[in-house]
Write a structure and sequence with these properties.
Elements lengths: L1 E2 L2 E10 L10 E6 L2 E12 L7 E6 L2 E9 L3 E6 L4 E2 L9 E2 L1 E10 L2 E5 L9 E10 L10 E5 L6 E7 L6 E9 L16 H12 L3
Parallel strand pairs: 1-3, 2-4, 3-5, 4-6, 5-7, 6-10, 7-11, 8-9, 10-12, 11-13
Antiparallel strand pairs: 12-15, 14-15
């Protein structure tokens, strides 16, 4: 467990990796902390066999060249606010984030804990970013779970493609609960589109 710290000299992190951890399961937790791996540092979580690995990020940030999230691996990420955690900004009010050169294996689980936060407008949360020219085209997560989603809220996940000038993004989009009665369609704005939504609802007997 690393709490309220900043570490920049890791060459690699293996959490429950059968090839490098003596066939032992493992867990690493970061709270209000930043970890950056030097050079070509890789993070490996879990394995494809009988060991498990868990990486917990709570208001924390991790930077690495590559993440391999294997079949028995789990990455837990908290959303404690709408400010993205970075190497220079972690702690209360930030949401956990990972910046990578590239994504490797993606067969494990991503669990995103909203902690009961209430969103009154649409929120875009960039959880994992990749360096310029890289994307998730070959590494989409098969197991994504969102915990503690508030009543009336919904979510979707998006993969933003990378190109010659931008990198790929794994993104969580939350549709909040409107607290303005005139915002009928719940997009956080009062506009003519709300009247159309009201008419549609009226015609459908709502």
């Amino acid at each position: 467990m690393i709490t309220n710290g900043s570490i920049e000299n890791f060459a690699a992190i293996d959490i429950g990796s059968a090839g490098n951890a003596g066939f032992a399961s493992g867990r690493l937790g970061l709270i209000n902390s930043s970890v950056s791996l030097v050079d070509v540092g890789w993070v490996t979580v879990g394995s494809s066999v009988n060991t498990s690995g868990v990486l917990d990020l709570d208001s924390s940030h991790m930077r690495a060249e590559r993440l391999d999230l294997n079949a028995t691996g789990v990455v837990n990420m908290t959303v404690n606010g709408l400010t993205r955690a970075s190497e220079s900004l972690v702690g209360p009010g930030t949401y956990s984030a990972i910046d990578l050169g590239a994504m490797g294996e993606a067969g494990g689980s991503i669990r995103i804990d909203l902690g009961g936060l209430e969103f009154t407008t649409k929120a875009t949360i960039d959880l994992i970013t990749l360096d310029v020219g890289n994307d998730f085209s070959c590494s989409k997560f098969t197991k994504v779970e969102v915990l503690n989603l508030g009543s009336g809220m919904s979510y979707s996940t998006e993969y933003v493609a990378g190109d010659d000038t931008t990198g790929g993004i794994f993104r969580l989009v939350i549709s909040g609960v409107s607290r303005c009665p005139a915002d009928v369609n719940g997009d956080g704005e009062v506009s003519p589109a709300d009247f159309n939504a009201w008419v549609l609802a009226f015609n459908n007997g709502c």
